[in-house]
Amino acid sequence: MIPENVSVPFDAAARMRHEIETHLENGIIPFWTQRVKDTECGGYLTNFDERGEHLGTPWKYLNSQSRILWSFSRFYRLHPERTELLSLAKWGADFLIDRMWDARHDGWFWKSRRDGSGADDGKVVYGQSFAIYAFSEYGRASGDPRGLQFASETFDLLQKYCADARYGGYYENMEPDWRVSGGGKSAGDRKSLDIHMHLMEAFTSLYEASGLELHRRKLEEVTWLIAERMTDPVTGCGRNQFDLAFNPIPAIAIKRTWNDERKGEAPATPANTTSYGHNVELAWLMRRAMDAAGIISQKLLETIRRLVDHAVENGVDWEFGGVYRDGLPSGGPLILEKEFWQNAESITGFLEAYDLFKKPEYLAAAANIWDFAARKMIVKEAGEWRTLLDREGNPLDSNIGNPWKVSYHTGRAMLESANLLDRILLSPALRQTPACKS
After folding, report:
1. Kind of pairing between the strands at 388-389 and 338-339
2. Which domain range does residue 402 map to?
3. What is the pTM of this model?
4. Is residue 310 a contact partner of residue 237, using CB atoms and an 8 Å limit?
5. What is the mean pLDDT of residues 391-406?
């Protein structure tokens, strides 16, 4: 339950802004620039303990290699004077193109061994989406024509092989030759919010890089599909999984997903849960999609508001801090663990919502989560976030790097949150709070 009269004074918001920028510049960016380059095999190392020691990286996943490429490209756009960031981005782009692109069937392999040799050559739409996201950003940062070339070609492959012409949306897992995978755990008979949210994210960046009308149209299409077919019309939260016709069905741990490989408590069976952090992430990514595509819609803004309201009312732990991992669409939290990505994305999402709607509980939620992360989740000596904590902040998974946890969620959240706070701190309403010192 939201405490009464929650507010964040100007001074507290300004202090949060300073702390977040300091953490990005002195923690996250140097952590990854100093450790990630695999000088023996190419590409990036991903697995680190809480001291920042390399644990060995036997596998290289498409999503993590792409996410690190995106990070260095985006960090370089923030710091164009730091040429080492661009060099690290090119290093990752070269590995992906040379070792993870399927020269026979086109598209990206899902997973390789450390040296780039084959391990899983399936075509995972989730992974393809992050390749689009990464190469769009890399092209913008570097001017390398391969960036937009590979982003656009991957987009075209998705439209050719993965778009569902009957029901709309996109399939999840594909075989190496782009045939739809079987049902059940292989997900050929279901669709998920997660895949479509990340396609929206990827198409946003692609359209910003290309300016092509086709890219804008597909971005608008997937944005409306999520709003109209994948959010709960009663509670406002995001639904999890659907059959091919977008009827909600109990969720399962799909092959090649974080839910299938994560540590921590398993969801209830049959699963009928929603992820609070996922919903808040969806909210801010939807707002960015609207801005990029030029969509003006009160209905979409209402979708964003309801996603965030559900999370602030049910998912924020106002006692111990942070965001719960999973809950019921109606009935409150179910899994009380605190995971890195939900907490990182929720800071950005609640700040975005405050910037949109000026509701004080949104800013208070962002401050609550940042305080929890700073006290419990961030390993200050190393500069990165632990993967998983219990409700009170005791570590359940102390490692700060794995094939699913790299620089993308935490680094992007700090960068975006600092930019949002710059805007929020100019708000006359915030400057009039009682604790303000002019």
Report:
1. antiparallel
2. 1-36+231-239+274-438
3. 0.96
4. yes
5. 98
